Input
Amino acid sequence: MKGKSDNTAGPGAEERKLVERFLAGDERAFDLIVTAHQDAVYSLCARFTGNAEDAGDCAQEVFIKVYRNLKDFRFGSALATWIYRIAVNTCRNHLESSGYRAAERTLRLDREPFPGAVSDNLAGDSSFDPEALFERKELEALIMGAIGTLPEVQRELVVLRDMEGKSYDEIAGITGLRGGTIKSKLARARQKLREKLEGRI
Amino acid sequence: MRCGKAHLLLDDYLRGTLASAERDAVAEHLVSCGKCSAELEFLKRYREGLASVPPLRAPAGFLAKVREGIARDTAARPPARRGIISRLFLPLTIKLPLEAAELLATAALVFVLVKPTLDESMRPAPSVSHQEQEVAAEKAPGSPDSREARPRYHAFSRAKKSAKTERISQEKTAPVLEIDLAVASATRYRADRAPGAAREEEAPSPEARGQVMDMARSRAMKSESASQPAPHVQREEASRSRAADEETAGGVAPARQATVQFTSTEQIVKIKKMIRPLGGRIIGENSAAGDRPAYVRVELPEANYAKFVDQLNQVGQVTRQPARRAVLNRRSVDVQVNVMEQK
Output
């Protein structure tokens, strides 16, 4: 497996200690693991599902699975990569579920397209400019809307690479795809995005 | 560089993560390729647009929500049925000393339970061992053959040898005994049917006789098919059968058999003529072959035997010799009579 963690020092060693403490019965160690990865997992789920409610449910489900299966984790990869893999699979299952599809048909217009509104993040900014904020929200909505129309695999790769900033090795560890496949699929995805966004951004 | 490859490398070119050679090659391609240059421009705007999308954070209280979910999930799950191996040996770090103690206790228990069984299997067969032990116990203590002085394996070896001999002996005699039983049953039935049977009160009913006969036949057949006794045993058996017949038919008359050697055809013709009036019969006949003379075997009532020998004297010169087959002497006096050509 690519992206093996360094088990002797650094974050890898810290993660190993946390996992060992959890397996020895220390529940607080699991809390620390959740705290360390909750934002990344929630962000990924939000990019995949496209709304705050589903993102919260998926992220919660991800950590429940982590809690149940941590005893089987053998440090073949970084703990973060393993958790991301669970998150991607959980989101896929969620998006393929009949409940999500029914909700998608009826509630899409009522839901906030992307959680974590820009206004929330800029609330404390002293150079707050309402017009600039509006333009950024519009650009964000355009791009995220175009990403949302991509096929599932391409969308996953765009989210992981372009939005979450993962390396090709990490993406390979999460998705199980080869590096060359990842690059070619990403190129095709960007070509589609260009066709949708050309002249609008 | 072609457009296809440049297309794959544009994102990395923009990020500045390409090796210098590839970066130079892409830059050179972009100068001459308007399509790839336009693609690069789009990627710049696209990245700027994504940069405006802020990183998302999990909502407040997310950890508590996760904990609630875990508690709910645990309550909804049936208690996990751990396998026997898992229950006994996991987790190793906690239960290892306990497991070691259990293993030792189990090994000790097995040793205590199995050792008597092993000792038992090392002893000789009970019937033999008792004899051996009794004999050994009767010996004076301290003598070379006493139980204390004799090595245990020596006693075991002797007992084993004795048991083996006894077993072989039983294997040899058992089929013959079986046959004897069958013959006895058949003989009794035949005796009952004989005219003037002495013990009519012991004669079984026809059904019972039939059963006895069937049993005798089946036993005989079974023993024959199972054991296939050697030729000498078969001969002995035939002899016993005849003897038993004679004994049980003894109510009629004791019979005597004789082997009569002769040297000419005329003699045998005469012998055959004289045996019938005496109440006898020819039970075997053999012509001359090589050095062996021709002979005839006759059977006749004991009372007429002397008369038969007298008449033989008229046929030829009679000399008596002891029977060569001792087995024939069990019931009747078997005499070999040589009838020589009269000189």
Q: What stands out?
A: The mean pLDDT of chain B is 65.
